[in-house]
Amino acid sequence: TEYATILTETRGRVGWITLNRPEALNALNSQVCADVVAAATAFDRDPVIGAIVVTGSERAFAAGADIKEMESKSSLDMIMGDHFGGWAEFAGVRTPVIAAVSGYALGGGCELAMMCDIILAADTAKFGQPEINLAVIPGMGGTQRLIRAVGYYKAAELVLTGRLMGAEEAERAGLVSRVVPAADLLDEAGKVADTIASKSLPSVFAAKAALDAAMETTLAEGLRFEKQAFAGLFDTQDQKEGMAAFREKRAPSFENR
Ligand code: HXC
């Protein structure tokens, strides 16, 4: 499929989505939202795909929601238009998504990265929620997911001042899974994605769903969810295969992957 604002590619069992609006540092307008959601949900439905990578350019993962598109909108326009509603669908895909971030991940760009399950950052990456400088606030999860990632005080400082932070600080704070040299970013993202895609899909989906539950629910509810999901996997052929392979000291050969 051809998209207006992104490039897509399947490599092995991994679906790649590359944001491609270089003239606007990959600013997220409504077309980007529609394209990313369409591509991600298509990969999610494809039984061959076991992981998705979302990336931008060397200079920018995404510099935010498109300010020029939003500038003239009224409050009612923002509510009724629900330009960013599609992102909830992206955040809800069952396939693990890896954000490979180089350069700016600001505002909606940082929020897009936080909708992913793993954030790999080039040492050149810069994260921030600078919306306050535009007299607005984060609107795609920045006040909620950032707190869960880095804690209240770090998130509050970033959201209230608009300060950007580099890759090292972001990793220390817990926003980034791992920092890698910029030149290795896509290779590393590919390796992580290949690794995930080599596992048994039902266990991968269950793991993502349980991790998501931890972000959304109380500990007691999350533990109940985990217990159910864990038990459910014991009716899969792959669980028998995985444990037999361990006992027989050989590599597992999963049927659902
Ligand atoms: C629209 C953008 C853009 C954006 C950059 N551009 N960011 N267009 N929306 N968010 C455009 C610029 O206008 C310019 O186009 C081109 O991309 C290159 O950007 P420059 O500013 O010339 O580059 P540079 O001087 O290197 O500065 C990079 C930058 C700066 C520091 C990242 O572009 C910047 O501050 N961008 C805005 C960051 C931001 O405030 N993001 C939060 C947005 S609000 P032209 O045609 O002029 O050359 C948000 C809300 C989310 O995300 C919630 C929604 C529900």
Automatic annotation (TrEMBL):
Matches recorded under InterPro entries: ClpP/crotonase-like_dom_sf (IPR029045), Enoyl-CoA_hyd/isom_CS (IPR018376), Enoyl-CoA_hydra/iso (IPR001753), Enoyl-CoA_hydra_C (IPR014748)
Entry keyword annotation includes Lyase: yes
Keywords: Lyase
Reactions it catalyzes: a 4-saturated-(3S)-3-hydroxyacyl-CoA = a (3E)-enoyl-CoA + H2O; a (3S)-3-hydroxyacyl-CoA = a (2E)-enoyl-CoA + H2O
PANTHER family linked: ENOYL-COA HYDRATASE, MITOCHONDRIAL (PTHR11941:SF54), ENOYL-COA HYDRATASE-RELATED (PTHR11941)
Family designation: Belongs to the enoyl-CoA hydratase/isomerase family.
Protein name as annotated: Enoyl-CoA hydratase-related protein
Source organism phylogeny: Bacteria, Bacillati, Actinomycetota, Actinomycetes, Micrococcales
